[in-house]
Design goal:
single chain; alpha/beta; Rossmann fold; 4-stranded antiparallel beta sheet; flat
């Protein structure tokens, strides 16, 4: 219906421009929206106010001539000019009734559009370091990223979801060394454990697996190791222990411990994400860009373009010349490239792979990285405008009044797997996207587990299950549902609750489009709450399985369409639609 109103308004503007009443308007200038207040009609536009300045007319006067030049339409009952120049459209009652046939015909395709048909996008999200299990903070990024991917597909994008595996660099060395130290303890070596090594039980489990396979094969004298604990600076201490580990094990054995840790943790990450309903099309390894020498190639190109200089033995990128607060190190004094250098190479590879749009979803603590990454793309001559970076605040989990910790190094955290086991996938997925991604989220465990109307996901799923129950009662009561009879008699749907429900159903395609355009799945979540509320109100005030064949079939068609839209919406959010609750 909105598309038809858009066409009518564009036609009016073309007519006015041809008459010389207004200058030729810019393309796509017409913007309309569904109204929330029925007294303001069904659809409204501020078009007259937008055009008033260029047309050199009073907005209300301009609104009047726009209305006068609208083509005839059976869709519109009346129009009104409101406030400083809004045009409100009141649609005919039967215009909304036609949405039922559209929904029942399109089924799970209802809500899809081709606004961005076949545009390719790479969407990278989660990308947690493979140094420990996914915790609840990662879960929010996973739920958000998967929902954004589904929304983009619904409006036509060809979406490729990617997980960037940070399997190179210092954190992986700390992980490897942590596993080796736990292995030595299993070999009856009495050695302390560094404060800033990885301490989770999963480290002990991986070390035990290595010990069970190899016994004391990798055991070694530890006199030199024990002396390293005398270093008071914890960062220098752990680096010294890493170097000792490398020397004692040798490259092949060190790589064995490295791979054991990486493979175990990464496999668990993949399994936890799959259980969470999040599937990636590609797992991109940081080590692959190291092996292909991509980092060096990017740095060499930056040097060639005079964006790199040396200071204090390190190589620096002149990111401040692109608006960054300061320049950034690419290569440290010891010759090791930084994480930032890897990020440059990784984003260069995304462009080279030919995607029309590049979307990164990062934790909000990475906000400062945005300018420097875009600066590096500009310096390399790459289209930085292709890159869109979305930020996600980590969630804070509460059990009662107790705030739960999420430190990967200390091992004191609630994993995503544990969260799913406690509240279930559906509640976790839904609650994670209930707020804008960049806003802080307090996750209420007790509410997520409750089977009450206060729990929004339960409330929505219950609406779907209630409709399924109505259809199961059909045969018990000796009735039948005939779709053809229903669709030819929709005019009987004139009750206030029916009108409200029809208006809400008609909004679904617009909600999908807006949610996709703004990367805001929470808008869809709140729409589904509204739809469920409209249905429950209808259910509580009207009978569906009535004697009158025409009324019964029309009402069943309406709630059947409602069931389909709930299913479609929840599917986008990664939430199931149970038939029984």
């Amino acid at each position: 219906m909105k598309q038809q109103i858009l066409q009518l308004l564009n036609s009016s503007l073309e007519t006015l421009a041809a008459k010389g009443e207004i200058p030729a308007p810019a393309e796509n200038i017409v913007q309309i929206e569904n109204t929330r207040d029925e007294s303001h009609g069904d659809i409204a536009t501020n078009l007259a106010m937008i055009l008033a300045k260029t047309a050199k007319r009073n907005p209300r006067d301009l609104a009047a001539i726009i209305i006068e030049n609208l083509p005839e339409s059976d869709l519109i009952e009346k129009t009104e000019i409101a406030g400083p120049g809004f045009i409100n459209f009141f649609l005919r009652h039967d215009a909304y009734q036609s949405i039922i046939a559209e929904i029942l015909k399109q089924k799970d395709k209802f809500g899809e559009s081709i606004v961005d048909k076949d545009k390719s996008v790479i969407l990278e999200f989660v990308s947690a370091n493979p140094t420990g299990p996914l915790h609840i903070g990662h879960g929010r990024g996973a739920a958000y990223g998967a929902a954004v991917a589904n929304l983009l597909r619904k409006v036509g994008y060809d979406v490729n979801c990617e997980y960037y595996i940070n399997d190179a660099g210092r954190q992986m060395d700390i992980l490897t060394t942590s596993i080796w130290l736990r292995y030595l303890q299993l070999c009856k070596q009495e050695i302390p454990f560094p404060d800033n090594a990885y301490k989770g039980e999963y480290i002990k489990r991986i070390a035990k697996e290595i010990y069970d396979k190899n016994n004391s094969k990798f055991n070694t004298a530890t006199n030199g190791l024990l002396n390293l604990f005398d270093e008071e600076d914890p960062e220098i201490q752990i680096d010294n222990i890493i170097n000792y580990c490398r020397d004692e094990l040798g490259s092949d054995c060190y790589q064995y411990f490295f791979n054991a840790g990486l493979d175990s943790i990464l496999n668990n990450i993949k399994r936890d994400l799959e259980d969470f309903g999040v599937v990636f099309d590609n797992w991109f390894s940081e080590s692959s860009i190291v092996e292909k020498n991509t980092i060096k190639q990017c740095i060499d190109k930056l040097k060639k373009n005079n964006w790199v200089y040396e200071k204090e033995g390190a190589q620096w990128f002149s990111s401040s010349k692109f608006g960054d607060e300061k320049d950034r190190v690419l290569v440290r004094e010891n010759g090791q490239s930084t994480y930032f250098a890897s990020d440059i190479a990784y984003h260069s590879s995304k462009v080279e792979r030919g995607y029309e749009k590049i979307i990164d979803i990062w934790g909000a603590d990475h906000h400062g990285y945005i300018t420097r990454v875009k600066a590096s793309m500009q310096a390399l001559g790459l289209p930085a405008d292709k890159l869109e970076i979305l930020l996600v605040q980590f969630a804070t989990l509460y059990r009662g009044k107790e705030k739960l910790q999420m430190s990967t190094r200390s091992g004191e955290f609630i994993t995503l797997k544990e969260l799913q086991q406690e509240v279930g996938k559906d509640a976790a997925r839904f609650f994670y996207i209930l707020r804008k991604s960049e806003q802080h989220l307090d996750f209420d465990l007790e509410l997520a587990k409750s089977q009450s109307n206060d729990n929004p996901v339960y409330y929505i799923q219950y609406a779907h299950a209630r409709i399924c129950s109505v259809f199961k009662q059909l045969t018990d009561k000796g009735y039948n549902y005939d779709n053809d009879t229903a669709l030819s008699n929709l005019s009987v749907l004139s009750e206030p609750h029916e009108t409200t429900l029809l208006r809400t159903l008609a909004r679904f395609p617009d909600v999908i489009e807006i949610s996709a355009k703004t990367f805001e799945p929470h808008q869809l979540a709140y729409y589904l709450k509204d739809l469920a509320n409209d249905f429950h109100s209808y259910y509580n005030s009207n009978q569906f399985l009535v004697e009158d064949n025409i009324i019964r079939n029309a009402r069943l068609a309406l709630i059947n369409a409602t069931k389909q839209v709930i299913f479609n919406g929840l599917s986008i959010l990664g939430v199931d639609s149970p038939e029984v609750m």
